[in-house]
């Protein structure tokens, strides 16, 4: 652990000479005792898990033995789902859309085909799946992929109408090719179109059915390499499905018809059905309907077969929602869906296609949802989805992430949230139940809160890298429903859409107090209660927070109090001239000259409000129109349960509200906070009377938010010192951050007091002293005195975050009050009163401490961070975080062994700085800012966790903790679990004796190189995966895996036999040489006498 010499740090600072000298003296004295425990090796950045619905899904597959589901997306992502809590996310590097997925059933492998004509083999036997092989087609476009059960040969249909065959072990092409012209021969004069279906006959693996888009179906004999039968229909084909006995198949067509064919009847279909067509009485052909995009034909042992199809509705059903049709016997059920259907799969009891299928559920993949329908119960109810796929139910506008919450919080939220669940779900267990949970070592509670465009707030349990919804709060219930008359619309015209959208949230986990700010310049304060109540009148405060516009000039060069680091402001800034008194509920609307005044953007409901257990409205605060000027959006918000205060600010100023006494304590413009120490020369001028909006201008004035939740652009460009639109060309000094604390209110103070620190968009930090009455009854009777007490300092860029450390460098959280039941009666009410009289929990040092035992204020702006000693107010550490970009989110977070500043920069860098020394510990170029959504939702929390919305439907969680990265492998769930493959169906005595059972095919002999030859070299390029042979060795049991392992063993055995053969040959050569030498010696010595030697 390294000690810091403050003189070395001060050498790099650009402070004025006098402040440098004083800070050097005090800094050395204070920091020689402080040691920083966090080092660079404590940090590592990695993705942990992705939650939510796969964005823009394109394909789906299911393994009926392993019971896992795979979903591919248009961006090349792959999401795998097992039992609730077992999820996995993978990404194809090319980013091309996934057009088809095929499981190697019960093998722990998956084949994916992409729109860039590449095919990939994924190994699912590891916690983070990886690609083993890839094959890139060069000459033909892939349109369909089929892998028969327990086969290693993959059929690939192309746009040209040809079918190629790939060995999934080696991912090499077979020389066996089914050419389109050989398949159709003279049955059609034109090209049959792309291949839309391939499947083998359930009873005869040697017969392959090929569906072409034009309406031609071919039954191909693989052994004789010719077509047995051809079936022609005059409407385009979308899908084909077999009856399990292999004697019939069914096709779905573009005119909304289904045709059923006998395999030996070529002329006409055995039966033609138009499920949603009106049958004319004169026997004519029914009116055409919309295309049936997919059909599945599933049989049952004891009942009628199921025909399940998507599409096919009549053209006169305009505006009708997408439907899935289930035809069972004589009944036809039409199940309406909320979104368009992407794909569906029928879940069956057996993986064998030649047995009775016994379907029990249908998985329907919609554009924005995943629905599983129970086929075994009357009415076809849906299963309750246990996955966190409803994040996007309404678009997410803001997020907050809390780690290490109180342990009783999640059970409390779950108990009230469980009462909100819908009824009518299937009583069966969720059918996708594969995989095993990880052995997580993280035991601390984590909660994610999401705010949405429709005004809902959702609480999620995010503990141990899982996600589960706990509780849902609807804030729009507080307001009257908008009527579509002109007068009503004028009041809310400052918002184009989503007037109830959540903009900012402040939450105190200990007291369970919640405050949300909406885009319509409103605040709602909630208390948590386990009891149901009816509120007769919702308490309301209306606040006038609008000020006239004044000119502003930058301070003169070298002027007193000017900071060289302060950016030059613009030409004008809002400045308060007068501030009206805090107003209580007002009925005034338009003044005599037609200018709107004292009108809130939303109308609070006047009827009694029934409030269920959970979060219940305590107070509503609304900003109102002032002399025709609309209220500005709220840009910052803070809540303190110990003080009973809420503070909020916007581009005009701030207001402090006492939610216990339901009063406005302070209503000030930003400039009034400075008092006589204002660094800018602001010249007042007359207000612009012509700037009273009559229509569109009101809306333009309203769009001034720092990060608007309904912003639709992908670009990110905003002024570094302004949060107002460029229409007015004004550099308004907005309030950007707050922090409640118990600290020194003024320079040189000897005691600590409750304070509010305020940060502005021009980089100024201001202090506000709070004089609170004693706890208990006095707190409700005596007024709270709020007094601005000067400037703490200035930084470059908007202030993002403030925090406080004690003299040992320990983090000082704001004081808080413990939760109590607000609606308690009888004995419970006595407990409540005792709780309210207790001294609030505070970890700040005692007021009797000596002056030298100081605190440290940590302030982070868009450009730099500073650590300021209190009460001397000397800057002892300063670090310029970025010069060319700006910080979007900064948080002071607690790690296991210390504290740090975590920053996310607009250029994509994630950085951490030590405290109090501000040494860079981590700097990773992680994610370039491509979307406003990421900037709006990125947040850090304690213990090295962070999150953001990576797509409109998905949350990506990451960690910057080395310890979590090391334990991540254990925490992740396993998708593949060893399961015995069910036994094949019994052929029966008579079928075995007289034939008629399933016929097998030696595909190895047929498609292998010996028989089929080699494929054309330029057709496709083989790309080995990053794991190569090691990945193949990692595959354990199973048919393909056994074959792969046997092949590796044979290779190794062959290599050893080769080495043995070489050694034997060498020994033989040595023996020959020895024999030759011995023979020569014998001939030489043959005629010699013994004495001649």
UniProtKB/TrEMBL annotation:
GO CC entries: plasma membrane; SNARE complex
V-SNARE coiled-coil homology domain residues: 1028-1088
Family annotation (InterPro entries): Lethal2_giant, LLGL2, V_SNARE_CC, WD40/YVTN_repeat-like_dom_sf, WD40_repeat_CS, WD40_repeat_dom_sf, WD40_rpt
GO process annotations (BP): exocytosis; Golgi to plasma membrane transport; protein transport
Top-level taxon of origin: Eukaryota
Compartmental location: Cell membrane; Cytoplasm
UniProt keyword annotations, A-Z: Cell membrane, Coiled coil, Cytoplasm, Exocytosis, Membrane, Protein transport, Repeat, Transport, WD repeat
Pfam family, one: WD40
Low complexity bias spans: 573-592
WD repeats, residue ranges: 230-264
Sample GO molecular function, one term: syntaxin binding
Membrane topology: Peripheral membrane protein
Region (Disordered): 551-599, 676-724, 829-848
Family statement drawn from the similarity comment of this UniProt entry: Belongs to the WD repeat L(2)GL family.
Protein name, UniProt field: Syntaxin-binding protein 5-like
Biological source species: Oncorhynchus kisutch (Coho salmon)
Gene that this sequence comes from: STXBP5
